[in-house]
Every structure is written in structure tokens, then in C-alpha cells.
Amino acid sequence: MKTKKKFIVAIDQGTTSSRAILFDIQGKPLFKSQQEFKQYFPKNGWVEHNPEDIWKTTKKVLVSVIKKSKKLKGEILTIGITNQRETTIMWDATSGKPVYNAIVWQDRRTASFCNKYRSLKKERLINKKTGLTIDPYFSGTKIKWILENIPKAKKLLRKKNILFGTVDTFLLWRLTRGKIHATDATNASRTMLYNISTNKWDNQILKSLNIPSHILPSIKNSSDNFGMTNKSITGKSYPITGVVGDQQAATIGQCCFEKSSTKSTYGTGAFVLMNTGYKKIYSKNKLLTTVCYRLKDRSTFALEGSIFIAGAGVQWLRDKIKLIKTANETEKIVKSLKTNKGVYLVPAFVGLGAPYWDPNARGILSGLTRDTGPREIVRATIESTVYQSNDLFNAMKKDGLRPKLIKIDGGMVKNNWFSQFLSDVLNISVYRSKNDETTALGAAFMAGLQIGIFKSLSDISKKWKLKKKFVPNMKNFHRKTLLQEWSKTVRKTLLY
To answer: Could you tell me if 231 and 331 lie in one domain?
Structure first.
């Protein structure tokens, strides 16, 4: 009798689309289903999603992948989930209906409260306990805003009938028909409410923000039992055995399991994570300390730098100022110019992340002349992600940390010019993985680890394959000149 093929499904719920990917048990992607959904910008600095859009698109792509597995005459062994992290959803615990739109990680509406909170001398407390800084980016102040500003939320809170979750928690709750209200340690570590030393929600922080603990999910390992999908949604019940935030998932997918191993993901935003092992390293240069993954009740930590606008800058070029029709055009455009002609863009459209952490900063386009045209603006946008990455690596360097190489992933790295420019400016070798789906793969690895498909992290490491290596090829003088001009432009932005 012919042995049935065995599969793992990874749900990858991102900022602009929901995806589901079918992997074989070697970690090879076999089929992908993807659905974009609408972004809402109701006010300056506000970014929202409709939670029902998140759910509908996720359900649709998941069902599509399940159908494909049947056509391939195989069996799905388990499901893993990875997700946009800090995005905040609150819903009625009885009906499951959201009380408000999802407030996206990019949203800046709580900036004034964060300033006030910081003035109460809470920065050190937050950093020590959570590894984070006080910023609208994280879920904590988003929860507070909903509870204080949305009448329905207030009403349900009085009845103790309201729940909070990051996107993973919301999807788990929906997939299990309300049976599971849980998250994993990586997602919890992005809320500004989670104590990374105790692996618990921090009562002192909760009290200071007036957030009741009963609305929060239980916290599990990244590789754990997260319940079963409901048959009415997925046709049959499937176990969910891995949940991990998207940037940590990419770190796992890139097999950065050794101390000081580093990956950088270039999606809607850009994120650098360096594995620091079991030791928490607190940056003196405004990088974040976060949980990289948690296995068997023990956390491995990472140092993280966050850039809010990376691929979102390319979306801006396409959708707002209409200089391009597709993202793929950018490589040809930037290669057509020998230099950037002195044009720099600081894409602080929703403030600046690490190492500046300025929610009030706004974008600036500098160095314009009569000779400046669409091509120069496109190039400045692509280059801006590299310069922002250099700011993060500089911060790591000041903290006494410098990786030997970095592994890269995300939509932007398919652009060879971008990947080479990144290597040139950082002055470091850049490795692009053979598997493009590293974020989803990380979720698949965590799910597979729990049920024994993968025996260990070292077993998983054997699955990583190099596709292309980029080696620095820029003269020091040229690099220095470019970075000096970038620094000047950033200073103008911060004075805004």
C-alpha cells in the first residue's frame, strides 16, 4: 500500500495579506494561497484593519490549502500560525464580534499618552521588565485606548465579557470556535505587558495602565498544544501546535539558533533580530530585548531593531504617488541610475522606530533639484531601507555586538540590487536563503517540532540552504559619504 504524503500547514497572517502555505515534512513549500485585504487610515498616524477581513482572508486561504492537500493525496499533520505581532484586537467573549477595528502595529494614536507615561518615570520599569521601550508600537497602550474610548468596550468590560488578543490569539479563538484563548511567549513579549523574566503578565504594569488581567490570553511555549480547529471551518479537526510572532518565525525559518546568529526581514517593515541565547542583553542604544522563541518552558532571547517603513515605502510609491505600477519595477529603475544624485528619503510616515523611537517624526525628501525625477525618488525609497538597517547595526555595534554575516528574507530581498547595496553599506556578507517563505517556515518548524516531525533545533538546521551570497564591494570613502548625508537628512526629520 502506497504511503500517504504528509504535510504541515503554516498560516502567515501579515500586515497587507493573509497567506497559507503547504509544506512537506522536509520544509519544502508545495503550494501557497494568498489574499490581500484593505488597510484603513482614518486619521493622521492611525492605521487599522477590519478584524473580519483578517478572519475571512485567513479562512479562505486555509481552506484553499486544505483542498490542495487532498488533491495531492496527502495528510495534514498539524498547523502552525505566524502573525503580525503588536496589532491589537478586542472582541465580545460571547458573540466573538470585535468591538473595534484592529489597531495595527504601525498606528501612532497613543503617542501623547506614551509621552505622558514616560514623564512619570516609567521607562526604566518597562525596559527592565519587558525589554521594550514606551512606544505606541506595542499593544499595551492600544488596549488602553480601546477600553477608554470605545463605548461597547467599556460596557463589555463592566460585564467582564471582553477579550484581548494579538492576531494569533484572535485566529486561535476563531479557529477553535472560542475554546482557546491563548498566545505564545514571542507574541506576549511584544505587548509591553509581559515580564520576560517570569513568563507572566506583569501585574504592576497592568495596574499602571488600568488593564485588567482577565481579558488577557494564557501564555504558552512557541511549540505547544494550541487546541484543534473546528470541523465546521476546516472540514475535519486539525491540531495547532506552533504559534510564533512573524519576526521570530523568520529567525527560526532562517535557523538562527546559535548565539549571535542574525537575520533581517524586509517586508512591510524591516526587522533585525540577533539571537543572544538564554541571556537577556539590554541595549544601551535603544534596541529591544525580546523572546526569540520559548521551548520546554525556557526562553531564548534576541536583540531586535525595528524599522516601520520598508516594503510599505514601495507600496507608497505604487499606491499613493503612483511612480510605479508594480514592486518588481523598482530593481530596473534603481539600476538605471549610477548614483542617487544626492536625493534621500527618510520614510517616517508613522514616526521612526529603532534606534530613534520618535513617534512624532514625519517623512522628509531631501536633496531635490531640477534634475530630480521619478527614478531618483524610487531609488531614494529603496535606499532608505538600507540606511535604516545600517542605523540598527550601528546600535548593535555600540552595544559590543557585530554579526559575522546576516541572513535576509522578505519581499524586498528578491531585488538583487537591494541585497548587494545592503551588503555594501553594512560592509558585511549577506546570505539569501533558498526558501523564500522563511516566516511561514518558522511556524511550520515550531508546529512540527511539537509533534515529533523534527527531533530538535539541530535537526531543523539541516533544512537551511543558501541561494545567493552578497559580498561587500564598496569603497570605504563612498560608503562614508552616503551615510553622512543620510545622517544629516535624519536630523532634519527629527527636528520636524
So the answer is: no
Nine-digit cell at 224? 505547544
Q: Which of 244, 274, 297 is the last residue of a domain?
A: 244
Element spanning 291, H or E? strand 288-295
Q: What is the Cβ-side half-sphere exposure of residue 71, based on CA atoms within 13 angstroms? A: 9
Beta bridge partners of 31: 22
C-alpha cell, 294: 520559548
Three-state secondary-structure class, residue 496: coil
Contacts of 447 (CB under 8 A, 6+ apart): 8, 10, 78, 79, 80, 223, 240, 241, 242
Distance CA 316, CA 331 (A): 16
At residue 3, what is the residue type? T
Do residues 136 and 218 touch, judged by C-beta distance below 8 A?
Answer: no
State the Cα angle at 250 between 242 and 356, rounded to 5°: 120
pLDDT tier at 496, thresholds 50, 70, 90: low
| Sequence-ordered list of residues with C-beta below 8 angstroms from that of 186, at least 6 positions apart, any chain | 85, 222, 244, 245, 248, 290, 291, 292, 293, 294
Residues 238 and 275 in one domain: no
Same domain, 227 and 288: no
Quote the domain boundaries for residue 477: 262-433+465-496
Mean pLDDT of the chain: 92
Q: What percent of the chain has pLDDT over 70?
A: 99
Q: Around 121, how many Cα atoms within 13 Å sit in the side-chain half-sphere?
A: 0
CATH code, 77: 3.30.420.40
Q: ∠ CA(278), CA(284), CA(286), 5° rounding?
A: 95
Encode pLDDT of 219-257 as tens digits. Answer: 999 999 999 999 999 999 999 999 999 999 999 999 999
Q: What is the count of structural domains for the chain?
A: 2
Q: What's the sign of the alpha-carbon dihedral 477, 483, 486, 491?
A: negative
pLDDT tens, 397-410?
Answer: 888 888 888 999 88
Query: How many beta carbons lie within 10 A of that of residue 148, not counting itself?
Result: 12
Q: Which residue, among 116, 173, 170, has the nearest Cα to 139 in the 3D structure?
A: 170
Write down the pLDDT at residue 491: 87
Q: Are residues 236 and 372 in the same domain?
A: no
Mean pLDDT of 401-428: 91
Rounded to whole angstroms, the Cα distance separating 366 from 375 reads 14
For the entire predicted model, the pTM comes to 0.89
